[in-house]
Design a protein that fits this description.
With about 450 residues, this protein is of the alpha/beta class. About 35% of the residues lie in helices and about 15% in strands. The chain has an 8-stranded parallel β-barrel, surrounded by 8 helices. A 3-stranded antiparallel sheet has the order 9-11-10, covered by helices on one side. Helix 2 packs parallel to helix 3 and helix 9 crosses helix 11.
Length: about 450
């Protein structure tokens, strides 16, 4: 049964009154005049744009729950009893732990990772900012790559720009890079994403020259969505500041009507939008060359759930430009702050998109062209997903990009610390059943303690 309901969802904190709902519209089969209900359309009539985004912003990650005819969960992994691949068919050698999960990507300056996964882009959203330390250190000690998303510099409250509008100081970006490097041990790397505003602000120059960042990621669209990124701002002063820095802010914080609505109470937040980065082949090649000349050792590209034309361009242009890694993100989208309807209703679903990518890579191989190293993304959360994606994309897919699934351990670890200190009601039953100390609760605490000593705390 397809339970996707386009007019009510927990992400928007809405629901239908009736048990019977029209599948396409999501409207109750009996829509009653006088209903006190709480569906999307009911609330949108008086709250308007507030219904665009998952709530509460900054405290949740949201993932679209549209049920497609086929997704990765419909694939099963096939085992076999005859022979072995990658290891001798010897019961004393083909043992459960005898597996090398390392992977690598890149053209000349390759990056090795201990496991074939890396984080989705963690950019200017509050949930990324508040949890960055936990995500960054977790990625570093796990030996995987970490993607610092777009607009981190542009929204930094302590940002300093020169007379040409180029960044000269960004304490928040400094912190992001520093936290990852604290425990970095040669596996994985930190990518810094670039969008239109980042390019205008000279972010690539800053992170390469001042912070020694080696990998820059270009992007087409906002991950799996064909738009730019957004955040919400709950301060009129901050909204005006971001508009003056060149961002699109809606509604216009300098409009007297918007200011009056904010002061009266119904308008509680402004939205900061990033511009669309329209692409053309010549411009793409020039930008890759420009960033290389700045000193970047690696350039990667993240592209979303676009149809065949843009997918083919991404693969072929990445081949021609010798891009080090191409991440292909399919629908349904979801991590932080994209419009809910867009996450649910736009783009090519991941398994279809990744199958198309494999076919295009095969065609490129047949023409004698180099196929770029590829990563697949879109709703992956477990080791069997990783296996399926690597198998579907073999030999071109080198890794899987995970968004929300890799954010969960960072948030759980952070909150467990609070609970152990007696905050927020103390340890919940879901955790306390394993013990009442960090040594009892965390399976790998002693492993980390043996490696990091007193720093483990």
């Amino acid at each position: 049964m397809n339970l996707h309901r386009p007019n009510a969802n927990d992400a928007l904190q809405t629901k239908n009154r009736s048990r019977n709902v029209v599948p396409q519209s999501g409207i109750c089969s009996r829509c009653i005049d006088g209903c006190k209900g709480n569906c999307d359309l009911f609330r949108a009539t008086f709250r308007g744009r507030e219904l665009l985004y998952p709530e509460p912003f900054g405290s949740v990650t949201a993932g679209a729950d549209k049920d497609y005819p086929v997704d990765y969960s419909h694939l099963n992994i096939m085992g076999y009893a005859l022979g072995a691949k990658g290891v001798e068919p010897d019961p004393d050698k083909a043992t459960f732990p005898a597996v090398n999960t390392e992977t690598s990507f890149g053209v000349t300056e390759k990056v090795k990772m201990k496991v074939p996964i890396f984080t989705g882009a963690l950019g200017s959203t509050d949930i990324a900012r508040k949890n960055w330390e936990h995500f960054a250190i977790g990625a570093a000690i796990s030996g995987i790559s970490l993607v610092c998303g777009e607009n981190v510099v542009g929204i930094d409250p302590e940002l300093e720009l020169d007379s040409n509008g180029k960044v000269t100081k960004s304490p928040e970006m400094d912190r992001r890079v520093r936290e990852y490097r604290r425990y970095h041990e040669g596996y994985g790397d930190i990518f810094v994403q670039m969008n239109v505003e980042d390019t205008r602000n000279g972010v690539a120059e800053y992170v390469i020259e001042k912070l020694g960042v080696e990998t820059i990621e270009l992007k087409w669209g906002q991950g799996a969505k064909c738009i730019g990124g957004e955040i919400k701002v709950d301060s009129l002063k901050r909204a005006i500041e971001l508009k003056k820095r060149g961002y699109i802010v809606t509604p216009d914080p300098e409009d007297p009507a918007s200011q009056a609505a904010f002061k009266a109470g119904p308008l509680k937040q402004f939205e900061r939008h990033s511009r669309l980065g329209f692409i053309d082949q010549e411009g793409f090649m020039k930008e890759v060359e420009r960033i290389r000349k700045l000193g970047a050792k690696r350039i990667t590209l993240k592209t979303g759930a676009y149809p065949m034309r843009e997918l083919a361009m991404a693969i072929r242009w990445s081949s021609d430009a010798e891009i080090d890694l191409l991440t292909i993100d399919g629908a349904p989208g979801g991590t932080g702050m994209s419009p809910w309807r867009m996450m649910s209703e736009w783009g090519i679903p991941s398994i279809y998109l990744h199958s198309m990518a494999y076919d295009l890579c095969e065609r490129l191989t047949q023409k004698g062209k180099r196929v770029p190293d590829i990563a697949f993304a879109a709703g992956f959360s477990s080791e069997d997903h990783v296996f399926k994606a690597l198998a579907l994309g073999a030999p071109y897919c080198k890794a899987v990009c995970m968004g929300r699934a890799l954010m969960i351990p960072g948030m759980v670890g952070k909150n467990a610390e609070k609970w152990l200190k007696g905050e927020d009601g103390g340890l919940p039953a879901t955790v306390s059943r394993f013990g009442s100390t960090k040594e009892e609760i965390f399976m790998n605490y002693e492993v980390l303690k043996a490696k990091y000593g007193s720093e483990v705390d």
